[in-house]
Design goal:
The strands form five sheets. Strands 1, 2, 3, 4, 5, 6 and 17 form a seven-stranded mixed sheet that branches. Strands 8-15-9-10-11 form a five-stranded parallel sheet. A five-stranded antiparallel sheet has the order 18-19-22-21-20, with helices on both faces. The chain starts with a strand and ends in an 8-residue tail after the last helix. Helix 1 runs parallel beside helix 9 and helix 3 packs across helix 6. Helix content is 33%, strand content 25%. It is globular and about 65 Å long. It has 461 residues and is α/β, with parallel strands linked by helices. It binds flavin-adenine dinucleotide and nicotinamide-adenine-dinucleotide (NAD). The site of nicotinamide-adenine-dinucleotide has 26 residues, from helix 6, strand 12 and strand 18.
Length: 461
């Protein structure tokens, strides 16, 4: 038995960041992780492997479609799927080992195994019971199930199975036009799979600024992805390595069945708190299965929770920020997360990024706002890389000019968004961005031009 200031259950982005910050602040920390490697969903079966496959297949797309235009002629590369998966695994390994190194460097103890909380102040791992002044539930999430759809992770897969398919399927039906569906759908579409996305709502990427979502769907359609919207999937069955997916069109209740080689179920994720013993401990839960918290504290003294296991966007950087904030609180300081400035990024080509309010949200709130928009058509760098299709849209308060939101579809959108995030953290106006010198020629100039468009007008529009 060992005694700790803090024991964190879960070694994902929320848990490992919390652990490192706790250690930096002088606390004795243990992290319980049952997987063979640290890093959680994000590093092992989420953010990192999906981005490796997106990078590899984007490179293939460039070779097949754009190299010749730039005078790079010759045979385009053929796909060695096993090697692509090996590259993805190497990327994972490099990152998970990196976290192990950081644990050693910061003297964080990895308690290997699956943890339970038999009582406040105690965490059991295997046969050993450890003591801790504070316990943090950072156990993350798992794919949500869908009635009538039986996942076998071979023919009918979640994102986890989609990362390790035995072979590239000829056809794939993706259930859900959310982030996972569109990222993994893009990967396979670029590999030559005929991808059909079936979405319950009438638009893709629910919650995204509607103008961006519309432009995004148009671009993905041009890339060969088919969309069936307003369609509720009723079930999916697999037999002999093939599958059937049945959906009902919401407008007339007509039922359609699709035949396909593979089905990706991407209809959301749910908190994973199985086997922790929360019910016996009396931990209050939200209706949708998250651990109920107030400033990360549960109703049980000394027990905290964060990341995908609690309410809020299921994003690695949201979990990380919460990990840092909670560590500060546990060390007697003040920790804070600004939930109004959490960016969201979809790593397709083009990338899509957003922060703050959408136009629809501002309308609903009755807020007077103005829109500054700039198309990448007016951006020299975007044109040079054949990615001039998108735009930057900045929403600012009509009277004060304070930035309320930004939505970008275009090259490096996931990186560009951060200058707006910093501006918003500082309560900046669109004019503050517009008056800041931006290097030429960069994609960032499009952000400045959109800010200029909130005032007297963009230059290159
Ligand atoms: C395919 C995919 C792609 C994604 N891409 C992105 C992206 O690009 N950007 C982004 O921001 N987010 C992305 N996400 C979401 C991101 O992975 C999660 O938001 C993030 O991992 C949540 O971090 P967490 O620390 O809360 O939980 P997790 O990362 O889920 O980690 C929880 C850990 O706890 C462990 N655990 C659970 N119960 C126990 C127990 N009882 N004992 C011991 N260990 C336990 C689990 O094994 C797991 O390792 C993606 C997700 C998926 C599935
Ligand atoms: N780049 C990133 O940041 C990234 C990447 C991947 C995953 N994630 C996170 O992982 C989580 C899960 O992603 P996801 O894509 O599975 O969920 P999601 O919530 O983003 O999208 C699910 C989609 O499925 C649709 N749907 C639900 N039931 C349906 C049905 N019966 N028939 C047809 N459509 C149906 C929903 O309307 C929705 O559009 C998200 O919270 C996301 O934030 C983030």
């Amino acid at each position: 038995m060992a005694s700790f200031d803090v024991i964190i259950i879960g070694g994902g982005p929320g848990g490992y960041v919390c652990a490192i910050r706790c250690a930096q602040l002088g606390l004795k920390v243990g992290v319980v992780e049952g997987r063979d490697t640290l890093g959680g969903t994000c590093l092992n079966v989420g953010c990192i492997p999906s981005k490796a496959l997106l990078h590899a297949t984007h490179s293939l797309h460039e070779a097949e479609h754009n190299f010749a235009k730039m005078g790079l002629k010759g045979k385009s590369p053929s796909v060695d799927w096993d090697q692509m998966k090996a590259y993805k695994q190497e990327t994972i390994d490099g990152n998970t080992k990196g976290i192990e190194f950081l644990f050693k460097k910061n003297k964080v103890t990895w308690l290997k195994g699956w943890g339970t909380i038999p009582a406040a102040g105690q965490v059991k791992v295997g046969d050993e019971v450890h003591e801790a002044k504070s316990i943090v539930i950072a156990t993350g999430s798992e794919p949500a199930s869908l009635a009538g759809v039986e996942v076998d992770e071979k023919t009918i897969v979640t994102s986890t199975g989609a990362l390790v398919l035995n072979k590239i399927p000829k056809s794939m039906v993706v259930i859900g036009a959310g982030v996972i569906g569109l990222e993994m759908g893009s990967v396979y579409a670029r590999l030559g799979t005929e991808v059909t996305v079936v979405e319950y709502l009438d638009a893709i990427t629910p919650g995204m600024d509607a103008e961006v979502a519309k432009a995004f769907q148009k671009i993905l359609t041009k890339q060969g992805i088919k969309f069936i919207l307003g369609a509720a999937v009723q079930g999916a069955t697999a037999k002999g390595g093939k599958a059937k997916v049945t959906y009902k069109l919401r407008k007339d209740d007509s039922e359609v069945t699709l035949d396909t080689d593979c089905v990706l179920v991407a209809t959301g994720r749910k908190p994973y708190v199985d086997g922790l013993g929360l019910e016996a401990l009396g931990v209050e839960m939200e209706k949708r299965g998250q651990v109920k918290t107030h400033h990360f504290a549960t109703n049980i003294k000394g027990v905290y929770a964060l990341g995908d296991a609690i309410v809020g966007p299921m994003l690695a950087h949201k979990a990380e920020d919460e990990g840092m904030a909670l560590a500060e609180i546990l060390a007697g300081k003040s920790g804070h997360v600004n939930y109004d400035v959490i960016p969201g990024v979809i790593y397709t080509t083009p990338e899509v990024a957003s922060v703050g309010q959408t136009e629809e949200q501002l309308k609903e709130a009755g807020r007077a706002y103005k829109v500054g928009k700039f198309s990448f058509m007016g951006n020299a760098r975007a044109k040079a890389i054949f990615q001039a299709d998108g735009f930057v849209k900045i929403l600012a308060d009509k009277d004060t000019d304070r930035i309320l939101g930004a939505h970008i579809i275009g090259p490096m959108a996931g990186d560009l968004i951060h200058e707006v995030c910093v501006a918003m953290e500082f309560g900046a106006s669109a004019q503050d961005l517009a008056l800041t010198c931006h290097a030429h020629p960069t994609y960032s100039e499009a952000v400045r031009e959109a800010a200029l468009a909130c005032g007297d007008g963009a230059i290159h529009a």
